[in-house]
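Data deposition worksheet. Section B asks for the primary sequence of the deposited chain exactly as it was used as input, without tags or linkers unless they were present during the calculation. Section C holds the resulting structure in token form. Section D is free text for depositor observations; keep each observation to a single sentence. Incomplete worksheets are returned to the depositor.
Section A, Depositor: J.P.
Section B:
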Amino acid sequence: MNAGRPKDLEKRRRILEAAKCLFLACGYHGCSMNRIAQQADVSKLTVYNHFQDKETLFTSAIAETCDRLLQARPIQLSAGSDFQQALLQACELSLNIVNLPEALKTEYLLLELASQRNPLAQQFYNASHEKLSALWESFFAQAAALRFIRADAPHRQTLLIFSLLLGLRHHEVLMGIRPAPDQAERAGIIQDSIELFLLRYGRSE
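Section C:
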């Protein structure tokens, strides 16, 4: 066994933590490998020994950040499930995640990359938005199979629930026009979203 391995893993962890902090605070272009090395208290050479370039480090740091934000497990439904309660739980989880300060910072970073047509934006999107969408699509596919809702493409149903939960309001939050919704406001948003979603997909029987 390599006696130096635990030390190497500790350095890698420090580099990733420094990168996550700095990328979210300074943006992609405002963050240098030198600055990350200083924040992690390692040499620049050590950073490059663990991550071959800035793009690789960015991808690893953002993927880890998104994994931590989206650590929820898919909601498993059964014939005896209370579907509306499960839908409420899923809405609460999503709305809480997207309004976390760290999640809002990742949104700003994604918008920065997208505005520059940086190919890293797609990788970022896959690690964040696509993962959350996959959780919802799995949920809706189960719900339709169990006849809790009317069948449709799960992706279309996911787009609808995101539009209802976020919509123009979330754009205003990102622009700093309004604060992130508090707990009482979130409860109202969720209630309205569920009512409207079930108008479209609820079953009458």
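Section D:
The chain is about 70% helix and 0% strand.
The longest helix spans residues 5-26.
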